[in-house]
Amino acid sequence: MQHFRYRAYDKLGKLTDGVVQSASRVSALAQLHANGLFPLDVAETAPRAKVRWWEREVFGGSTISTARLTLLTRELSTLVKADLPVDEALRIVAVQPLLPARVRQTATEIHEDVRGGSSLGGALANRTPPFPEFYWRLIQAGESSGSLAETLEDLATLLERAAEARAKLVSALIYPAVLLVAACAAVAVVMTVLVPTVVPLFKDAGAKLPAALQFLVDVRDFVSERWALVLAAIATIFAVIVAALRNEATREAIDRNLLRVPIVGGLIVARETARFSRTFSTLSRNGLPILEALRLTGNVLRNRAFKQAVSEASERVKSGDRLAEPLIRSGIFPELALRLISVGEQTGQVEAMLMRVATIFETSLQRQVSQLLTLLTPLLTLMIGGTVGGLILTVMNAILSVNDLASP
């Protein structure tokens, strides 16, 4: 797609300018006419400048992250709810100094498209790479129904709840991760510093190494002498795992079996049920047809078994079934969620019941994760302490045995 800068009069005779994205100058003119603009001149221009290097965020990716998307959505929601036009709201976000540079750059690019005559949903859909499909389709539905402010509010709430859950999980995992790193560092010190110091003492005394110390020496020698083979084996295992995960049939089988694993399966079910309920309720409440909402909700889910269940439910709903019936037949949704969805369909309050389901299972997921990590932290501490302590005890016993050999 090419970029064309234009100057044009609108229907009220006001002179305006901007940038429109189109395949050719002819199609750019047609697009401007379709939006009620009368162009004076249209000329091809260079693509938008990239973010300057001193404004780039460290390790920033080429696509907008969920955190940046959440910030952008909340800012737009606040401004649009204050009855500001979309283009003015985008302009304000683009110059908001407290926002990250990439959020401001994204707002600037969208603002140029909107000033060029595109709708907000169309500008989001035509970005390369595009925003998530459920995101821009929901905004298009909000624009069509005249409820863009409410739609942006729902989207911001949806993204913030997901970000909050993810932040709590990451925060809870920090301490166990630090423990594992410390354990690896301690093992590395024992293997690379203590063991090489003790081994020569036995050789000088002409004594045989203790079995435990001999095992550590053999492991160290094997890794140091055959490091290329070890790396090749690790790379092969990694490649096999990646290939298996990219195969849809294998991935679906893995995801389905994960649901049967104690504790882990319960966490996945709670997470996917909450995500399905909140996303589908948000999409449906903002005017998307039920089949379209189901399709987009299925794309948001992570577990392939749940994706398949929602896809089959969509086909059954298309045939005239109620939503709860195919979900019950899938056998993977919790009974409580199914009962509430069924009650919602009978009373005409499906969206409200789905929001209730989402709240229940989000709370349940947070409680289960908290309990699991509360139990996991002392277990990790004991395991790491036993491993590192065992290695150090092995080396200390070896040193004491050397002293015994040296005694007359």
Fold topology:
Layout: E1 2-9, E2 15-22, H1 25-34, E3 38-45, H2 66-81, H3 86-94, H4 101-115, H5 120-125, H6 133-145, H7 148-205, H8 211-225, H9 227-246, H10 248-258, H11 264-285, H12 290-300, H13 304-318, H14 324-330, H15 335-347, H16 350-406
Antiparallel strand pairs: 1-2, 1-3
Description:
The chain has 408 residues and is mainly α. The chain folds into three domains: 44 residues; 96 residues, Up-down Bundle (Receptor-associated Protein); 247 residues, Type II secretion system (T2SS), domain F (Receptor-associated Protein, Up-down Bundle). The chain is built from 16 helices and three strands. It has a three-stranded antiparallel β-sheet with strand order 2-1-3. β1 and β2 form a beta hairpin. α2 crosses α3, α2 crosses α4 and α15 packs antiparallel against α16. The longest helix has 58 residues. It is elongated and about 100 Å long.
| Contiguous runs where pLDDT drops below 50 for at least 5 residues | 47-63
Specify the overall morphology: elongated
**Proportion in β-strands:** 5-15%
CATH architecture assignment name of the largest domain: Up-down Bundle
* CATH fold assignment of the largest domain: Receptor-associated Protein
What letter string, H or E per element, gives the SSE order?
Answer: EEHEHHHHHHHHHHHHHHH
Rg for CA atoms: 30 Å
CATH class of the largest domain: Mainly Alpha
- Rounded to the nearest angstrom, the distance between the terminal CA atoms is 88 Å
Class from secondary-structure proportions: mainly alpha
Q: What's the total number of strands? A: 3
**How many helical elements?**
16
Estimated helix fraction: over 70%
